[in-house]
Amino acid sequence: MDKKLLLTKSLAEYLYFSLHDVEQLINRFPKAPGKKKADGSMVTELDLELSLMIEKIVVEQFPDHIFYSEEKFSEWGFPLIAVDPLDGTREYMAGRPEWALSVARFLKDEFIGEGWIYNPLTKELYCETSHVPHADKKIFYGEVSRSEWEKGLFNSVSSARFNIKPMGSIAYKLGRLSAHKLDFVVSLQPKNIWDIAAGTILAQAAGYQFYSQGKKVTKVEKYYRPPLIWCREEIYQELSGLFP
Fold first, then answer.
1. Which residues contact 43 (CB under 8 A, 6 or more apart)?
2. Strand pairing report for 34-36 and 42-44
3. For the chain: N or C, fewer Cβ within 10 A?
4. Which pLDDT tens digit goes with each residue over 25-80?
5. φ, ψ for residue 136 (rounded to 5)?
6. Are 105 and 90 in contact (CB under 8 A)?
């Protein structure tokens, strides 16, 4: 982690103390109808309320940071706090426990910072991780987008060595990857920075690399093009061959 991040109280501490407020919001909106935004994605009242809650923390505690949320993204610059207040809106609307809050903090445009991911339904919190050495296996387990799976984007993928399963929310999947609950994550559709910021920070700290269009990602950008792969460097060449 950048040493400058250690000079101030961490974002994770402020978010941890806000978990009660998160729970109250979810109790108010156990299930909320969604509406389509201009880009075709869905938004609910809970998305908007969570975004406002996190924005208030940023304005009060990190006034020099730009707040860049899926629900409010007019400015871009650093230091930056990238937020997806509810990653996996379709899962939330469907009543599946596969969605999460995702918050990341960057001091500059290098992909180094502070990540925080919370699944309120499973109570899984990802904000710390440990590096575990790579171990070769006969079978590697990974997760891919549930919506991409249902669209048939993985129908042609067949491998005895790489076992894939659909799971909602890219942030949630990357949190699970950072905790070594799986070996890789793949997405075949573009992602915005708010989708993958926190998860990528945590996954990289745990020893996984992020690749976009065949190149290792080192810079923070607004948008990343597929194929998007998070995995150990040691298995990237073999794994990426399945997703040309």
1. 34, 35, 36, 37, 71, 89
2. antiparallel
3. C
4. 888 888 777 787 777 788 899 999 999 999 999 999 899 999 999 999 988 999 99
5. -70, 140
6. no
